[in-house]
Amino acid sequence: AVERLRFFSLPRICNHCLNPACVASCPSGALHKRGEDGIVLVDQKRCRGWRACIAACPYKKMYYNWLTGKSEKCILCFPRLETGQAPACFHSCVGRIRYLGVLFYDAGRIREVAGLPQDELIEAQRSLILDPHDREVAAAALRNGIHESAVESAQNSPTYRFVKEWKIALPLHAEYRTLPMLFYVPPMAPVMAQKNGAAVENVSADLFHDIDEARAPMEYMAAMFGAGHAGKVRYALRKQKAVRWYRRAVTVGDVEMATAERMLREADSSPEEAEAIYKLTSLCTFEERFVIPPMHREQAIEMLEDPLVHKQCAGFGFIEGPRRGL
Fold first, then answer.
1. Domains of the chain, start order
2. What does the H/E/C string look like for the chain?
3. 226-258 residue pLDDT tens
C-alpha cells in the first residue's frame, strides 16, 4: 500500500576502507592506499584489467572501463584535496549532508578488529579511532611524521564528532570487515500512516513519533548500519529524536523543557551536546563541514625526486590519451 512506501537517499562513494578488499585482490598490485591521506587509488599504468578488484569489492564501487581496458573508482577528488578544496560531490551537495575530516587510527589493530565477531565490529572500529585531543596520541602522530597542521585538523574534525564523540554515525555494512571509513547518520524516517477513508492519517498521537513507529523496520536499518545490531541504530536515532525535541522546547516552547531534558538523559546526551549537534548539522559553515589539512605532498614526493622540480606539475600524473595497452 502507498501509505507504507519508504524512500530515502543513500549516497554511496568509495569507502576508502582501512582493510580494502580491492587492494588485496589485485594480481598486478595496481591498487594502493596512500599513506599520507588514506585514499585508495588505481595506478592506471600498472592495471592490466584482470577485474579481480570488481569482484572483491563488497560495495561494488570498482568499475571496468571497456574503452581503456582498466579498472576505475572514486578517487575522492584528490587533486582538489591537495589544493585544499572539498571533493566535488561534497562541495556540490545541496542538502549540506556531507562532512569531511581527519581521523587518526591505530593501524596495528586493523587485523585484530577485522577478525572480531560481528556483534563487536561497530564498537571495535570506534575503538580503532584515536582521540586527537589526547596528548599522547598527538605526540605519537608527530613522532610518526604527521604534521602539526594535520593534528590540528583532526582536533577540529566534524567526522570525529559524529563517529566517536556523539556516536550517531555508523559504517555501512560493517559485517564485510573491510572497515569502511565513510560513515552514515541513520535517517529519521517518516511516521507510519494509516488510511482512513480518503485521507491518510498518522498513526502516532505524539508530536514526534517513536523511532519504532517508522515505516522502515528497525531490523532493515540495523542490517545496513548496525551489522545486524539494532541497538546501535536505535541509539543514534534516539539521540537525534532527543535533539529534535530539545530544540522544539527551546525555539517553539510547545513542549516542556523538563520532558526534553529527560529525553536527552535517556538518550545519553545533554543540552550542551544537543546544541553542538544542532549547530553542526543546521548552522555549519563550509569551514566547519570540510576540515581539510594541508596535504604536505612534498613529504611523499621527496622520497622519489626533488620537490622543487615536481612543484610545477599538477593533476593526474600523465597526459596520454586513454586506450587499451597503455
1. 13-82 (3.30.70.20), 85-294 (3.30.70.20)
2. CHHHCCCCCCCCCCCCCCCCHHHHHCCCCCEEECCCCCCEEECCCCCCCCCHHHHHCCCCCEEEECCCCEEEECCCCHHHHCCCCCCHHHHCCCCCCCCECCCEECHHHHHHHHCCCHHHHHHHHHHHEECCCCHHHHHHHHHCCCCHHHHHHHHCCHHHHHHHHCCCCEECCHHHCCCCCCEECCCCCCECEEEECCEEEECCCCCCCCHHHECCCHHHHHHHHCCCCHHHHHHHHHHHHHHHHHHHHHHCCCCCHHHHHHHHHHCCCCHHHHHHHHHHHHCCCHHHHECCCCCCHHHHHCCCCCHHHHCCCCCCCCCCCCCCCC
3. 999 999 999 999 999 999 999 999 999 988 999
